[in-house]
Each structure stands twice: as structure tokens, then as C-alpha cells.
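Weekly puzzle thread! Below is a chain. First person to post its structure in C-alpha cell form gets bragging rights.
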Amino acid sequence: MLNKAEGLKENGIAIGIVGPELIVNKILATIQRFPSFEPVARTYDNDEEAPTLALQLMDSVEVLLFSGPLPYRKAKEKLHFPIPVLFVPLTGTGLYRSLFRIEKSYGLHSLSIDTMPQKTVEKTFRELSQLEVDVVYYNGTRPYSSEELVKFHVGKFNQGLCTVALTGNKSVSEELAALGIPNEWVVPTEQDMIVTLERALLSTESRRSKESQIVVGLVNVDEFSHLIGSRFTEHDVQKMKLDIHRMLLGYVETLDGHLTHLGGDEYLFITTRGIFERETGGYKYIALARDAEKTFGVTFSIGIGFGSSANEAGTHCRLALRHAKEAGGNHCFIVREDKGVIGPLEMTRPLEYDASLLDAEIIKKAEVAGMTIPYLSKIVSQVARKGKTEYTAQELASILGVSIRSTHRFLLQWHDTGLVEIIGEEKSQSKGRPKQIYRLSFIHDYKF
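Winning reply:
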């Protein structure tokens, strides 16, 4: 049974996830788009286990998410929940995939369908112009059981009323397969999960309380002295400064915030967390950076600070700006209340790696070993995407975007501080020396 309670971070919004392992893993992959969430997952092989697993999570999470309507109804039937409870619905998007697979494997002639709303199915058929399909819907009592659904599909199949069963329940699909009845399990799509996670986020008390939390941002104009030096007259310099200030004012206005010019190349703005999260698409991109380079040919380094007080948020935004500068400029990082880091956010140029949520514990280990946040972000993103923590120096050099020589220097330092360990060698195809394989031990057991 999957258990991801370990590694729960105390400053995130804890969300419990209950369902079959396949769907839970899809939800966990999707939830990486929501850095405010800290998932705690439980998986099962049978829907009857859902209430027990939900009871285990109920007192330690702020919101509970079930993989589908059946486990949700079973849990609601037996338990009283003091927290928001939701399930991932089965919509037309998941149905398209299932119908395509049925058409390819069996031919789309007659179906018996459970769980899916009749209106949703009929709308999908109209859009596909598949009006000749004969459909029998389950209209039994609710909350329905897996046994009732299996009995329904078996009965319709034996009566010759359907050739394929379409179910939204994993255990029903498995039992039908064991009986030799053609069937397709309708699985929620990523878009279904995103919509439900957005609803879950909005339902939490922590989210509502953080909506009005102060956010402090620092914007630094990259290579400002070079920009000034490239202008021919003082009039051109002042005009450029006014243009930049006007652009920043326009951006901060979209945040319903306040902007202050700190002098020279630095600006400070204040807004609220709820507005900032919406304007950045959930801490994914900064539209300001794209407009600045496109219009004036300038880039910004941006640091954003969250905190339980204005002083703490201000301290964290200065730290985030330092990370952006260490990354070479034209980057934006966010430092949270627990000093965890979100970033880099997408700027003007496409990211070479995805934005990652970095835990404070990992950051502390990396800083002790002299690893910068930009390098750490690249490594963590690679591990989160690929699911592997063993690399050669050549592979790490490609990930970090530095030379082999620099990578060997980094690895020597990281090895001395216990950040990485040598676990073996990879024989070279040429006559050269074997390549050592390094394990990133500091995140080897971390739950992404």
C-alpha cells in the first residue's frame, strides 16, 4: 500500500488522497502544479477499504480527495467529515479516451455504462456523431456497490443487450475481465484532476486565510549600468527609467499592489498572496518579464517573499532575489514562510527545466555543501521528472549546463560533505577510463 505521509511539510496545505494506485499516482503527478499542497496518499485494491483509509487521514489533513464517486460515496455513507471532501468526477474528456479504445479493440456497437452521468455520455456521442450506439445505463440504488455494478454488466451482457461494459470503477473492471466480459475502465484525465484540485484548494481554511497574506517583491534591472552606458544622452537615460517605471506600475496595478522605487536599479512592490497566485498562474510565470524584454530589451531579476509578517516577507524576498542573481539574472524565485523555495518561475526565455518546489530541509543540506539554489533547482526538477537519482559526471554536466571540469569540482565538494556517493562505474564504449556513477543521496529517499 502506498504511503506518502513521510516528508510532509508543516507549512503547506495537507491534502489527503484516497484511491487505486494508478489514479493516485496520476493525481500526485498533477498536484506538482499546486505548490501550496502537501499530499498524503493512501491507495487500495478494493473500494471497501476507502472509508478506513479516509478515517486514517481525516484528522491530519485539511481537505480530502477521493479518486472517484464510488469510494467517495462509500466513505460518506459511513463517516462524518469535519473537513471539505471532494472526488475527481468522470467527465466527457475521460470518456473520449475510453470510447476510442473500445472502437479500436471491439468496435463501438452496444455498451452498458455505470457511474458516468447519462447526459455527459449523450453529449459526447452527439459530438462524435455516434448516434447508432445502443447504450444501457445503470439506474440502481445509491450508494451502489461493486457487486451490484458487476451483476448489472453481467446481466446485460448475457442478455445480449451489450457487447462491452464501460465502468468508472477499477475493481468492477477487474472482476468483469476475470469473467471474460469485454470492458473499459474510464480513468479521469489530467484536466479533470486540475479542476478538482483547484476546487479543493479554494475549499481549505488555510487558503482562505492566506488570501490576504502580505507578499513583498523586489525587482532588480539586470546590467543596469551597461544599459545606462549604452544611452547617448542624459535625456535617453531618463526616458528609459521612466519607461521601466511606467511598465512596473502597470504590472503592479494588475496585482492591485503598491510600487516603490528604491533608487537606481531596484524597485519594491507589495501585494496579497491570493492575487499574486492568480496572476502568476499558481506561481508558474511572470508576465512582466516577457513584456520588458519584448518592449525595451531589458531583463529583470525578481525575488518574492512570503511570510507571517511584513518583516519576514521582506527578508525572504531579499533572499529570493539573491537566488535569482546567482542564477545569472532574468530569473524569479519565491521564498516561502519556512524558507522553502519555489522556482524558477517562467520568464521570457523557455525554461530548460520545470519550476520545482524545494523543501527547506533539502536547501539546508545543499547550502552546507556549497550547492547554489539554481543548481539545486535543476537537479531536483530532473529527479522529479525522471524518477532517478544516479548519474555520471557527464550527465550532471548536461543537466547543470556547465563543463565536465566544473562538474568534477562540484562533485568532489558534494562528496566530501555527504551530498552524493559513488555507487559504481559505467564502462566506456571507447578505450577510455570507466565513468563513475554518483547517487544523489541527499534526495534519494525524498518523496516527490
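Puzzle host: Confirmed. Bonus trivia for everyone else. The two ends are 17 Å apart (CA to CA).
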